[in-house]
Design goal:
The complex is a heterodimer of chains A (about 110) and B (about 230). Chain A is an alpha+beta fold and about 110 residues long. Chain A contains four helices and three strands. In chain A, strands 1-3-2 form a three-stranded antiparallel beta sheet. Chain B is elongated, with a radius of gyration of 25 Å.
């Protein structure tokens, strides 16, 4: 189980990464992230939508109302050019952090 | 199928966002819960059980409301309260004070209304006539910042409320001072003064400000919901 503080930090990376593949509405986005992380990252309503609104204000993602095949109206989020630019350095930062932690744990166990 | 929009609207009732933005948030959260509910039904849960579990997943609605408000307003709730109530209210108060002094300076005098009571009531007609406009200005500023109906009306009557607080504080302080310097206090006279001053300087101005606030809300401060714009 991942602690909430670390989850918050990784949430933006998770959302940007998943939206890179396709535009998604909030429910589908949360479900994809949960499935792809084997349930390690789960979003409550109080976490998901405020985060999406913040990311929208930062212009990393853009939401627009669309009608799905079954006639339901959903607000779909897609990655903006700014979001794409943000994703690469975010990935690098987290990769560096994980490598650093890996080195640290290896040294600690040596 | 439960009416998720109605359920969410009731739970996010106090979300103080502009009407269109609030409608969007409610529609979006309702859509999320509807998907969750349908998924649970597909997984074989009975309707009642699925409904209970779906609502349970939402967690604490106060927290949902607060977090959404923080995210949308870009800061803590105090910032929102400042923009929606205090700033428009203080603006209304500053304007009403300036207008009052302006009228006094240009020689418009208060009109004294005689009645059968022990005191006369002072009614400053030119100033009172200006108050609906000032109440409307404060209401529009508050509404533009996303104030709820209650906040908007509170902002419009803010000058009268502030004056009421000032009068209520002034008399006890005055009584304490008089007691210290040894002047005997006539409580009936003090109560009469509070009542008559209260009618002329608080109650009647509050009604005038409220009329302006209500008119502004009906005429100028309504916005079309942004979802409707997106639908077209």
């Amino acid at each position: 189980m991942i602690a909430p503080g670390i989850k918050r930090g990784t949430a933006e990376l998770a959302v940007l990464s998943v939206l890179q593949d396709a535009p998604l509405h909030g429910y589908e986005l949360a479900r994809r992230i949960e499935q792809q992380t084997n349930g390690a990252l789960r979003f409550t309503l109080a976490a998901l939508y405020p985060m999406l609104y913040r990311m929208e204000q930062q212009r990393w993602i853009r939401g627009s109302w669309e009608t799905s095949a079954n006639g339901r109206r959903r607000r779909c989020y897609r990655l903006t050019p700014e979001g794409k630019k943000k994703l690469a350095p975010l990935r690098r930062e987290w990769a560096e952090l994980f490598r650093a932690l890996e080195r640290l744990t290896k040294v600690a166990h040596a | 199928m439960p009416d998720w929009k109605n359920i969410v609207a009731r739970r996010l009732d106090l979300l103080s966002l502009p009407p269109g933005e609030k409608a969007d948030v409610i529609a979006e959260v309702a859509a999320h819960l509807e998907e969750t509910f349908c998924e649970m039904r597909r997984c074989g849960f009975q309707e009642e059980d699925a409904f209970r579990r779906t609502l349970g997943q939402a967690g604490n609605w106060k927290s949902v409301q607060r977090e959404i408000l923080f995210a949308k307003s870009g800061g803590p709730h105090m910032g929102t309260r400042l923009r929606q109530l205090w700033a428009p209210g203080l603006l209304g108060m500053a304007l009403s004070t300036a207008v009052l002094f302006g009228f006094l300076k240009f020689g418009f005098h208060p009109r004294i209304v005689y009645w059968n009571g022990p005191k006369n009531i002072l009614v400053y007609v030119p100033w009172l006539l200006s108050l609906p406009v000032l109440g409307a200005i404060a209401a529009c500023f508050s509404s533009r910042e996303g104030g709820s109906r209650r906040t908007v009306l509170l902002a419009s009557v803010f000058p009268a409320l502030a004056f009421a607080v000032a009068i209520l504080l002034m008399f006890p302080i005055g009584m304490v001072i008089e007691r210290i310097i040894g002047i005997p206090i006539d409580f009936i006279q003090v109560a009469t003064v509070i009542l008559t001053e209260g009618i002329g300087w608080i109650l009647v101005p509050a009604v005038a400000l409220l009329v302006g606030g209500l008119l502004a809300q009906f005429l100028f401060c309504r916005r079309p919901p942004s979802q409707s714009t997106a639908l077209s």
